[in-house]
Amino acid sequence: MRRREFIALLGGAAAAWPIAAVAQQPEQMRRVGVLLSQAESDSVAQSYIATFAARLRELGWTEGKNLLIDYRWGGGNTTRMPPLARELVVLQPHALLAATAVSAVQLRQYTLTIPIIFTQVGDPVALGLVTNLARPSGNITGFTSFDYAIGGKWLQALKECAPALARVAVFFEPGNPSSIQYVTAIEAAASSVGVGLVPSPVQSEMEIGQAFASFPAAGIGAVIAVPTAAVVRHRGEIITLAAKHRLLAMYPYRFFAVEGGLMSYGTDMANQFRQAALYIDRILKGEKPSDLPVQQPTKFELIINLTTAKALGLTLPTGLLVRADEVIE
Asked: How far apart are alpha carbons 193 and 286 in whole angstroms?
């Protein structure tokens, strides 16, 4: 081989070495923290997280390869949330997922720099999380679950089922600011619907049992369960006691109706976690939360459990059944 050709060959090989070395380097690991209010044993919360992780995989993020996810579960106890939020922030993840309003509020207390994506938040402006939905400032954005005005629709649907309905109890969580705003919105609609409202703060199974025991004397004919971690955690007890006391009941999520509740009206929560994964993906690729608008739900689903209605001896109006997105039989 001629000397000039040999030198050229060496030069070409040397130029190729850095490229090969770069190609063989492992992908940079990203870290995401997830804060949930629910108990780790909650099957619905687990399904949401599975949906979130599956969507991230579709977007090219694989746990253990280029992504590490740290989960913290509040167990339905609001007092546990501050230390859990602090734990996640100390880990300095590249992004945080706040899976409820309580999670979002707590994480925001501990960081104004780490990007936070929230889900299941009713009114992020009222909670002080963002100042503007279209152009959120700071380090937080996400997906709202309801317009609080949905409380009026919950009442109207119950009244449509039972025109003589006079008093309705509302289960809410006293330490949850979002929960209290739902009660306020329902109270505002109660007079126009023609019912009296009885707010019932509940956090434990014992308090739920005591509330139901007091309803007959109070003339309660129906129950509304607003979306809170405590209500979700104790949904089995609420559904069972509503049936036992032969009360109409309205719930915020589809899985309540699937598990035996009379009716639910709300958004597809699993879809919020799919969308949150997309926002996390965009954050990990360099976008800023302030450039991602807060997304509001565009579709609400009415689910009716006809088996439960029949067990209550309830004949549901045809108009309500026609409007239902799903009738469970």
From this structure: 49
Is 16 among the domain residues? no
d(CA 175, CA 325): 33
Total number of domains in the chain: 2
CA distance 283 to 133: 18
Q: In what order do the strands lie in the sheet with 95-98?
A: 67-73, 30-36, 95-98, 116-121, 140-144
Contact 266, 298 (CB under 8 A): no
Asked if 229 and 102 touch (Cβ cutoff 8 Å), the reply is yes
For 127-179, write each residue's pLDDT tens digit: 899 999 999 989 999 999 877 888 999 999 999 999 999 999 999 988 777 78
Q: What is the pTM of this model?
A: 0.77
Is 43 domain-assigned? yes
Write out pLDDT tens, residues 3-38: 455 444 445 544 444 444 444 445 689 999 999 988
Range of the domain at 95: 30-145+268-291
| 66-78 CB burial, b ≥16 within 10 A, e <16 | ebebeebbbbbbb
Please indicate, yes or no, whether residues 47 and 190 belong to a single structural domain of this protein.
no
Question: What is the CA 225 to chain-centroid distance, rounded?
Answer: 15
Which of 96, 91, 112 has the alpha carbon at shortest distance from 283? 96
- Let me know if residue 262 belongs to a domain: yes
When comparing pLDDT for 9 and 109, which is higher?
A: 109
Tell me the torsion sign for CA atoms 36, 150, 308, 223: positive
Residue 8 lies in a domain: no
